[in-house]
Amino acid sequence: MTHHRCHTPYVDISIPQEVKQTVESMKHLPASKIWEAVLKANPKTALNEKQIYRYWTELNAGAWRLHDDQVKSALAVLEKYEDLTIEIIPITAEDGISAIAFAFREILDEFGSEVEEIAMDSTWKTNALGYELYAIVAEANGQALPLAFAFTTSTDGTAAEGAKDRMLQHVLGHVSEKCPKIGFVGSDKDSTEINS
Asked: Which domain of life is it from (predicted)?
């Protein structure tokens, strides 16, 4: 067997040093703004936005990746800001479930006494560990106010029945202490939200 055709030349897709320097000098900005600057400087670049985003993420990881364990890292970030802008919501630990919850201190302090209605919704598999995210929001002057968030997952299948309900009850209890006029909680068809 013989081969007489040349291969298509490979394109070097690594990020050139001058572009890396641009990203490094602008790392405090959103990655989308950095990408705009890269395109403006070189409109015909073979780079793509994902490459810039990945490099930007690597540069900034030290600000939010404080531990190799995602849960410990998240708690460390929250503890860093606990006395300033957020408050960690204490949750009674239960076997078979992992949970982290926090509330926005300034929003609860400023609007909590006026909140009469809240809504709760969830999304699942929000990170590599498959955590569910529960969000509790209120409304003021036609704008959504994020009050609290809870991340949870079953760890090993040993969680007692209703463990997630009890965790959400702790979170809602914390919010209701700060918002004593709550008369209505809106939720969708998720039975955990309804039971809480």
From this structure: Eukaryota
Q: Hunting for tokens 């997952």 — which residue is that?
A: 153
In terms of DSSP bridges, do strands 117-123 and 132-140 run parallel, antiparallel, or are they unpaired? antiparallel
SS3 for 88?
A: strand
Structure-token pair, residue 153: 């997952």
**Neighbour order of strands in the sheet with 132-140:** 86-88, 97-104, 143-154, 132-140, 117-123, 184-187
**Buried b vs exposed e over 66-86: b needs ≥16 C-beta within 10 Å?**
beeebbeebbebbeeeeeeeb
Are residues 135 and 146 in contact, defined by beta-carbon separation less than 8 angstroms?
yes
Using the Cα atoms of residue 179, residue 185, residue 187 and residue 192 in order, give the sign of their dihedral: positive
pLDDT tens per residue across span 101-121:
999 999 999 999 989 899 999
Q: Which of 137, 133, 135, 116 is nearest to 179 (CA)?
A: 116
DSSP 116-142: -EEEEEEES--STT--EEEEEEEEETT
Q: What is the pLDDT of residues 53-87, one digit of tens each?
A: 999 999 998 888 888 878 888 888 888 888 788 99
List b or e across 152-167, with b for residues whose CB sees 16 or more CB atoms inside 10 angstroms: bbeeeeebeeebbebb
